[in-house]
Amino acid sequence: MEVIPAIDLLAGQCVRLYQGDYERSQVFSENPVDVAQQWVDQGATRLHIVDLDGAKAGKVVNLAAIEAIAQAVSIPIEIGGGLRDRSSVEQVFNLGVRWAILGTVAVEQPHLVQELCQQYPGQIIIGIDARNGLVATRGWLETSEVLATQLAVQMQELGASAIIYTDIHRDGTMAGPNLVALRELAAAISIPVIASGGVSSVTDLLSLLALEPQGVTGVIVGRALYTGDIILREALQAIGPTRIQDIPPNLGSSYLA
User: Fold this and answer.
1) Which one of 51, 53, 129, 167 is the catalytic residue?
2) 129 tagged catalytic
3) Domain 2-256: CATH class, spelled out
4) Residue range 80-97, pLDDT digits in tens
5) 18 bridge partner residues
6) Residue ranges of the domains in the chain?
7) Catalytic: 204?
């Protein structure tokens, strides 16, 4: 299982939110590039970046920070937040980003998702952020009537290479992942599922590792890394060597096989 450090950008700084609340943010570093390099030095094989300003604005905002990270590290990065049109996706790919994470448009413009999946095979990941099983959109500020599992099935049919599932009520709380929801989601689709939200300890990582045969092949870790509750190097040793390597994107979803 791949352990993926998260870097959330707000006003160019590395922060963490509590349950997606912008008013409850905590700054961990004013230099995201230094943070990114720290995770690389500890053995990360991929970085998960979220443009929080972009998620609210509906367009990518922290371009300078994203480009600086992409140029500074030797591992691939994925980015979400504000990617709601074709030009925004093209923009981040031109910065050196490997995977684009689409969220709001998956609900509002599924035809665009299909077109982008065809244009960039293996490089489009769908971020499903759920609140009580329903998909939240627009930086978690709105909740739709769409079920998370329903959206995952639809996005798989449209060509998405993976699903990142975030339980908003657990994000930033270190209360543990929602294993029941993850198991249900993984059972509904055949493409890989990446867990996000609530991971607080190596014990949580081991509980997710038990779901790997069912399709939960990665986990994004945020606050626990920044507080020191999880030491990335030790966590990677505890769950065993990752099977995820820097495989060219044209191999499609097999990068998480």
Assistant:
1) 129
2) yes
3) alpha beta
4) 999 999 999 999 999 999
5) 21
6) 2-256
7) no
